[in-house]
Design brief:
With about 130 residues, the protein is of the alpha+beta class. The chain has helices spanning about 15-30, 35-55, 90, 105-110, and strands spanning about 1-10, 60-65, 70-80, 115-120, 125-134. It has 4 helices and 5 strands; from the N terminus they run E-H-H-E-E-H-H-E-E. Helix 1 (about 15-30) packs antiparallel against helix 2 (about 35-55) and helix 2 runs antiparallel to helix 4 (about 105-110). Bound molecules: adenosine-5'-triphosphate and magnesium ion.
Length: about 130
């Protein structure tokens, strides 16, 4: 698996969530992703980018178009230097929110992608990496 092309996109305010969605959509199209898969990935981007703004205090979305022998995909990492998540198991429970949300962002995003990795600890910020193959 080699990254064919990559970049990074700041996510500081709500407007950046919209821009992150637009960028992800464009990258999915470059990967030749079907509309159904594109829609799933862009929905996951909305949730993760919003968490970056709301809980992480802003951060970045790193992107890689990846290729293996057989296929092309898009890998995105949402990273922030916010407070981190003290209890990953709880955060990955449907309906659990520390704020006034629905508590469906992380679990929903996980269901919408092929690979989902959450790396976080209190005081260490949060990184969520998702991959969707075309
Ligand atoms: N980047 C982050 N930094 C710190 N805490 C986070 C981050 N992302 C998620 N969390 C924590 O995980 C919880 C669950 O996140 P999730 O997105 O699933 O639900 P939510 O944001 O509360 O509600 P919604 O369904 O509206 O997204 C959040 O309430 C928050 O406590
Ligand atoms: Mg959320």
């Amino acid at each position: 698996m080699t990254p064919a092309r990559s970049g990074t996109h700041p996510i500081l305010i709500e407007q950046d969530v919209v821009l992150a969605r637009q960028l992800a959509r464009k990258l999915c199209q470059e990967c030749g992703m079907r509309l159904i898969d594109l829609t799933k990935l862009v929905t996951a981007v909305s949730e993760l980018a919003r968490n970056t703004v709301v809980y992480g205090g802003g951060g970045h979305m790193d992107w890689d178009i990846i290729e293996d022998q057989a296929r092309t995909g898009l890998r995105l990492t949402f990273r922030d230097e916010g407070p981190g998540i003290p209890d990953i198991k709880l955060a990955m429970t449907d309906g659990w929110t520390s704020g006034g949300g629905l508590g469906l962002g992380l679990t929903g995003a996980k269901r919408l992608v092929d690979e989902f990795v959450l790396d976080t600890a209190p005081g260490q910020g949060t990184r969520v990496t998702i991959t969707r193959w075309a």
